[in-house]
Specification:
- The chain is of the alpha+beta class and 118 residues long.
- It is built from three helices and four strands.
- The longest helix has 19 residues.
- The radius of gyration is 17 Å and the shape is elongated.
Length: 118
């Protein structure tokens, strides 16, 4: 299985004052400085500074050809989250990274080599 990190980006659109207040009240749980990739998706935003959001999803796929479908599903999941809460959004896009294709840095190579030897 391949671990895929999918980043879904977009912008809030047409928020009411009460929706904006809700998002501001929950800001600490959605801070850009404390983000993670999770199967259910992790939402980050700073609505006080800018209208943009980022959802980070972790998915597993069997083959490389399955990555576009995983990215499309992440977009649908993010939009469903907003739809369930009545938040408007626009310009939703996604980017997927196959973590098996990410080169290891020097420290990662040393750790990996030690694991293979041990």
């Amino acid at each position: 299985m391949r671990n895929i990190r999918i980043t879904v980006r977009g912008a809030f659109n047409g928020l009411t004052e009460s929706q904006r207040a809700e998002l501001l009240a929950a800001q600490a749980d959605h801070d850009f400085l404390h983000t993670v990739y999770t199967p259910e998706g992790h939402l980050a935003y700073d609505v006080a500074a800018r209208p943009f959001f980022t959802f980070r999803f972790l998915a597993e796929v069997a083959e490389e050809k399955d990555i576009p479908d995983a990215a499309a599903q992440a977009e649908l999941d993010a939009m469903a989250w907003f739809d369930e809460r009545g938040y408007g959004y626009k310009n939703v896009t996604s980017q997927a990274v196959d973590m098996s294709e990410v080169p290891l840095g020097a420290k990662g190579r040393r750790l990996n080599e030690g694991h293979l030897r041990g």
